[in-house]
């Protein structure tokens, strides 16, 4: 994300810095204006065609934020299968809707994190809202 300028303050690249691991629902912060963003990455066959869906993180914190009307912008980083090239897409928080967040089935009782539940971003629901930055 150090290649992208902050979408809020438009400061030059390198102001978006990584938050500590396991920070809920956000991965980067602008060290100038405090802008928060979520990053998801995926390896795909074609970086010019964003996937229709991508795995999210923990459902409960996401659901609580959605119930409070809080959404974080999404940066989607796609790499080709050879890891030679990549693309970065952006989805603004105000273009997100509750129906694009689909809860997954909780992990089984035999799983190491039994009962944990994630979600899926349904990117087919955002239409032209996903904008390519790089």
Name the assembly state. single chain
The domain count comes to 1
Instruction: Provide mean pLDDT, rounded.
Output: 89
How many β strands by DSSP? Answer: 9
N-end to C-end Cα span: 11 Å
Q: How many strands, what sense, and barrel or not for the largest sheet?
A: 6 strands, mixed
CATH superfamily: Dam replacing family, catalytic PD-(D/E)XK domain
Task: Kindly report the spatial arrangement of strands forming the biggest sheet.
Answer: 1-2-3-5-6-9
Helix content: under 10%
Determine and state the CATH class.
Alpha Beta
Rg result:
15 Å
Output the helix-strand order: EEEEHEEEEE
Low-pLDDT ranges: none
If you had to describe this structure to a student in words, what would you say it looks like?
The chain is mainly beta and 134 residues long. It has one domain (16-132): Dam replacing family, catalytic PD-(D/E)XK domain (PvuII Endonuclease, Chain A, 3-Layer(aba) Sandwich), CATH 3.40.210.30. 7% of the residues lie in helices and 33% in strands. The chain is built from one helix and nine strands. Strands 1-2-3-5-6-9 form a six-stranded mixed sheet, with no helix packed on it. The protein has a three-stranded antiparallel sheet with strand order 4-8-7. The longest helix is centred in the middle third of the chain and has 9 residues, at 59-67. It is globular.
């Amino acid at each position: 994300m150090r290649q992208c300028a902050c979408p809020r303050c438009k400061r030059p690249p390198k102001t978006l810095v990584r938050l500590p691991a396991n920070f809920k629902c956000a991965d980067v912060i602008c060290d100038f204006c405090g802008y928060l963003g979520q990053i998801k990455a995926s390896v795909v066959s074609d970086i010019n065609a964003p996937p229709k869906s991508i795995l999210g993180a923990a459902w409960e914190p996401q659901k609580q934020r959605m119930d409070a009307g809080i959404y974080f912008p999404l940066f989607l980083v796609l790499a080709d299968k050879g890891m030679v090239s990549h693309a970065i897409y952006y989805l603004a928080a105000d273009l997100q809707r509750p129906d694009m967040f689909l809860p997954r089935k909780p992990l089984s009782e035999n799983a190491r994190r039994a009962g944990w539940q994630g979600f899926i971003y349904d990117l087919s629901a955002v239409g032209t809202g996903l904008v390519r930055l790089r």
